[in-house]
Amino acid sequence: MRYQQTGDLHFVTSRRRTNTPHVRSVMTAILALTLLPICAPSAQTNQDIVGSYSGVIGNMQGTLRLRLRPDGTLVATIDHLDLSAPWMLRGDEIHRQGSTLSFTVPSVRASFRGDFSPDEKQLAGTWTQQGRAFSVAFARENFIPAAKPSPLDGIWLGTPQLAGKNSSRTQIVFRSDASGREYCTLDALDVDSMDMECANVLLQGDDVSFDVPVAGIHWIGKIEAGGNALHGDAHQKIIQGGATQDVAIPLSLTRQQTLAIQKPLPTETYDPGLPPVTAAALESVLAKDLAVALKSGELAPATGEGVVIGVYAHGVSRVFSFGAARPDSIFEIGSLTRPFAGLLLAQMAAQHKVRLDEPVRELLPAGAVPQPSGAEITLLDLATQQSGLPAMPDNISTANMDQPYADYHLAALLAYLGKHGVANPVHAASTFSSLGFSLLGTALAIRSGESYAQLVADEIAGPLGLSDTVFTLSPAQQARFIQGHDEQDGPAPPWNSDVLAPAIGLRSTAQDMLTFLIANLHPDQIQFHAGGSFSATLPSAIRQSHQTQAELSSGMRVAMGWLYDAQAGNYWHSGATAAHSAFAFFNPKEDDAAVVLLNISPGLNGWFVERLGRHINQRLQGQPVLSLDR
């Protein structure tokens, strides 16, 4: 079973802080979390198609950039460099045959196949995402290299001067065109964040400055040492003492003759399997499997990190912890909040309070969002990531990046929707849209006449007895809320949220989450803690929420808030905030389930919480297991 990362990552990457023993460099971390590695072996000469191509994908303006690595490998990235809302996607499985170019984009579960015009100035084809297809045309941008290179042109290499452990060699390649305009790309060589496009590159005398929008960096400095050294600082907006400040991270670079070699990606290794492990025996087995992590790795005493695991198999359940966590510790669960929104929709539909195919516009305040002329976003579209909405709205303030969502309220969401609209003619994929689930929860709360938090408590948490699954902690719960950590082990504050809470805002324990998973496994055997109409419809609503609606990729489908691995039979989801990460799955075929809660954000070495979740699944099935030692 191979899981794909879900969509919390734009949350993680938007946070910048210095209340840790180090200053965290976005350039060494941000895109290591969001961008997937590329793999495009080709013996064909592709120099003729290298360049940048502008186009519109759905409702998003983007630039397709085709480059060649020194070994002749074709590289494809798609980006949007608006400083207010930059993004970047990486291509995989890139193939060219004659005039035809094809590639996949795993991070958004998409693929493209198109043909170049005879003069190679146009690339037109079909973009397919979550089973939906639509036409996309890219037009080549005309780059004419300068007849004489500028003093800046060439390859430069340096390392940010950080106290943290995750500094990465930073490589920048500058080039200028015939008009004198400068361009550059930045590679973080040790964390596989490659080909990040620059913007606003300026060379005025010896003064140099540029932005790297997708990494939140502004570099400013000078050419010195006879034109072979760049001395300057990479500036970031961070929070310190509750105020936004500009922090300068020294980053000097020296001119190179050849491109530096990228650090190889770590490979997955597997340990031999055991006979299927029971829920009762799993704790002792994992104690051995985690020995290295507990002594010197992710869960070592010096990190302050801990994990709580809840497991169920064939009628037996256990909850246990390792490291700094206790079995009853409370964690943020990030995007693992979303299956609750999907179930809430199914629950309200079972009670005839909403229809699955009801346009979301009809639940919002009258006149807040104009009615489109054609098909529009429905509640089911939102719950199954078929709304076409972007990951996040573009009118979120970045004034306080420690609490980026606390001040985003209903008025701002409606203002965004009024501008963006709710048309959805092709039921397009929404890239694990937190915006989509936030809108879904908000609309359901408006229809019910109560707050979203109260609605979840009434319809799901109360009937199931999930007393620690809440959006706001009581004083007693606060005492059990475990300190979270950022990706470099520094303390990180919890997130507060308002209108975005339905996508990211729940806190919970492993015991509560395990109870939720068992209810999903056996909806007709629920021991209800609250009666009434809420309980009466919950079993049928749970079954409805498991109905898959669209294929995301080969063998991977989407249900109402859950992802479904058809080959393994697992429903699953992961989640992360700036301080915690979570992973859960349940398998009706095998009658097992597990949840893993960890008090650290996903780091440069990937999602440890996901690797541990996969490892547990493999132990339960008696398969070779993903090693936890790296």
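Above is the first protein from milestone M3; the second protein from the same milestone is given next.
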Amino acid sequence: MKTMNVKRGQVSIFVIIAVIIVALVFGFFLLRGEITIVEIPASLEPVEEYFLSCIEENAEEGIEILSSKGGFIYLPDFEAGSEHMPSSNYLNFLGSNIPYWYYVSGNNIVREQMPNRNDMENQLEKYLEENLDCDFSDFRGRGFDVELGEFSSDAKISDINVEVAVSGDLDIGFGEDNTRISNHKAKVNTKLGKLYSEAVKIYNFEKQNSFLENYAADVLRMYAPVDGVEMSCAPKIWLKNDIDNDLKIALENNVQAIRFGVKGENYFVQDLSVDDSVNVLYDRNFPTRIEVFESKDGVMMAEPVGNQPGLGILGFCYVAYHFVYDIVFPSLIQVYDSNELFQFPVAVIIDDNKAREALPVNAVFDSQPELCKYPNKDVRVYTYDTNLKGVEADISFECLGQRCDIGRTKTEEENAVLNAKFPSCLNGFVSVKAEGYAGKRHMFSTNEESEANIILDKLYDLDLELRVDGEKTDNYAVINFVSEDNTQVVSWPEQQEVKLSEGYYNISVYVYRQSGISIPGMKKEVCNEVPSAGLLGIFGGTTEKCFDVDIPAQELTNVVSGGGKSSDYFIESQLQGNKVIVSVFSISVPSSIEQLQDTYNMLEVKPIYVEFE
């Protein structure tokens, strides 16, 4: 009985061994295509080692491009910019184009183009397959036979390295030794994956919190006129170029102060934990759009209230202003350590003085006016100068308060023409803008007309001189040239040149001097007719109601001291000179509010003389 148990145990062991052998044989045949065991002769190892170092070097080049271009080696299709986004879908930084992760397209649509990690791996694989060109000539010169066949690559990006596998036959021979190596693996120690993850964290934080826009909105209110009231009888004037420069410098200095960590009391620290160092950059030379809706021809002006006829009841003058800004500018975010850097740009958007609303992940929204989505009328637009020579110009179409950017006329032989589709509209306007020419608005009904011929008047740059009583003055003055197609507001003496085109102009000049007029505080009784109470009020009955108005004491620093109004037609031959001289007469400096209003009445009939040299 004991012998039988021993024999059974031996059989069981043999059965187990047989099963294992069968499994191994089966696994070998099943996986033999995947398993390559290569015994490389020692004499041939230097060739494979060189090939692996060549793979690693090319991978490092691709990784560097990915890091410097926001995760791209092969850039997305180019999208031209416009007045809404002047830099296209790329930011040019130090001569290199970097795709925006978030931007405004040329047709005013907000878009995203952020690559994911798989996209970066695919791009690196493509880069290796197109650029891996290892030079085996040194080995061949020493008697080696080296042949590299067709190959493919695979890349895996982790937080601490990038693993690259190249599959392709490398045949090596030297003397009696020969081998074929088909799988080649290299590893690059890099934090590309980690820096990318940190960049995505910051990007999503910006999308959800608009922290860049919030800083920009604060900068706007600190460094530019937005809302305010000042006691003055003279208009307040700002030059838009000066405001633009001030804002760009302020943005440059403030944006780069942004940091990440525990916010605490530090205004510039964002409450976001980031493991690596971060720079947030804006350069004043980056393409930037700053639009002020209340500015005209580069001048922002706020008129005083209280010195107009009929407003003597106020007893004082004040200037109230409210300007609305749209601002779009790029910001470059760099995540880095001591050896590596990953960077990507985003567009920062201020709309009507406010930061854009936070966006959900993968948000893409359309801000195109509804009218512009349905262009269905074929229209041809020609643009000429006064000599009927073609002038290339930007064309837009306005209808019912909406404006569509259509395109640009292009030179064809002697003409500048645009063939495009316009929205259907009755009594719309074709708006034309060309560098060096006055803008033009041409009434046009696209549902009735198919061709527009528009003549543009050339703008002439002229030096300007203001004379009071025959002498050039340095006193502050506001000079207005207003025509149908060209309005110029000049703040003298800060501005001493003007752009004029042929046309009929209404001209006005207000010259101001320091007065030091002190107006004491007072109380006035003001009586007005108001609707009667009860049944009489229903039928239009009124009654007089009086109330007291407290007028605070004030100092008027500037009051009108000269000027006038007139109209004139300027022909092109006059404008071809170098200088325009505007001459006006002085008036007595007022010493009271009542006299101040009289002086404005006097200016209505004072003449202005304009001559060209």
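Note on the second protein: The domain at 370-455 is CATH 2.60.40.1120 (Immunoglobulin-like).
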